[in-house]
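Long-time lurker. I teach an intro course on protein structure, and each term I like to show students one example going from raw sequence to a predicted 3D structure in token notation. This year I'd like something fresh instead of my usual example. Would anyone be willing to generate the tokens for the chain below so I can use it in lecture? Attribution to the forum is fine with me.
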Amino acid sequence: MLKTKFAGLAGLSLLGWLNAAQTQAQGLGNSPYSRLGLGDAYINTGGVRQMAMGGVGLAAPNGTNVNELNPALVYYTSRTTYEVAVTGQFKTISNRTNSQRDGSGTLGYLALAFPISKRWAAAAGLRPYTAVDYESTTSSSVTGDPNAQSINRFTGDGGLSEAYMAHAFRIAKGLTVGGTASYVFGTIDATSGTTVVTSGDNSNAQSTVRLEHVRYSDFIFRAGAHYRGKLTDKLNYNLAAVYGFQSNLNGTYDVTQEQRTLAGAPIANTSIVLVSGQKGEARVPTLAQFGISLDNNRNWSTSLDLARQQWSRFQVPVLAGVTSAANVPLSDTYRVGLGGEWAPDPTSVDNYFKRVVYRAGISLAEIPYRPGGQRLYDRAVSWGFGFPIPGATPLDATTFSLAFTYGQRGNNNVTIDSPSGNVKENYIRMQVGVSLNNRWFIKRRIE
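-- Reply from a regular --
Happy to contribute to a lecture. Here you go:
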């Protein structure tokens, strides 16, 4: 029986990792804001449990799910825990003149955590780091020709993934520390094209298209600390901090330019290499996170998390003769989240729904892009559930988790930079996760 479970888990892990290599860097539908920097950043955002609580959990220990949001909390892994999740999203994107609906799904993350000794635990996994997925078209009049229009089309896809290894240690009563070493890798492709059309026959119209292809890979590091103490016999407090060090991702840049037909087909012998194999570094700024939580060590907890990232220090190489959206100046961002979880009676035998974990939270985050100096925000409310699968034993348990987030990012306000209005995204995001808990390496006794 043990061999069968282990083989099944190994097969699920292998299948997940093979699929992750193909799907991890994909985005969640068209997002114009992912054109900036390295794309939409998912830097240290946690898993399905954290998503359901408004993205909080830096100071909330948990033995059922893998909590690598704070590497110091990996210490609280009491059993070998394997977790996999998928993510889907539906959204409406609009400005003052146009709107569209979009959505997609992708593998969320893979994680494995296991205790090593009474004072030491470790975790490993694969998760998204950034995602690029956008497509937009703008038009403008051509000076000197009232019958002509210039159509500009921008597309991008790809992103970066993070394969990590985390270790946590208990160094004193209530005090744990941890660290994460991650290998970040992936590619980002971006195209921009300009076509001039008139009110007459455009069958021979051509567009000038620039193609950018960037490959990134390098290591990044985080450190975390957590302290747990008692306020009363039935009430505990938790304090936590995580610091993501500034990192420079090594990149290789290729840029070409070519002519295409109005239908988008490349025209032979028009390709020009602007940049080939140029080396450079993308500077990813530091990330500071702080958390506090309260719990009764039985069936409820509530958490407050704060984060700050210095996106004003973000930088990518300036390529000769190439102007890229990745070089648009960004601003420092802040994020605050408040959430919690509650299980009416985790030990109930006659009522299953009393063992279900109910979660909810809210969050407010700044977007690093400020058109015309205007601050843009991502406001969201989240909720979710943790369903224990019947048949759990002290050695083996499975939990099925759901998380939902409804949010709004940006606004439709008109600025100098956005005469048609800023881009607003109304979205609903869902994550489905499964956690398998098992006691491995138990010595058998014969009585």
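Some talking points for your students: The first helix runs from residue 2 to 23. The chain is about 5% helix and 60% strand.
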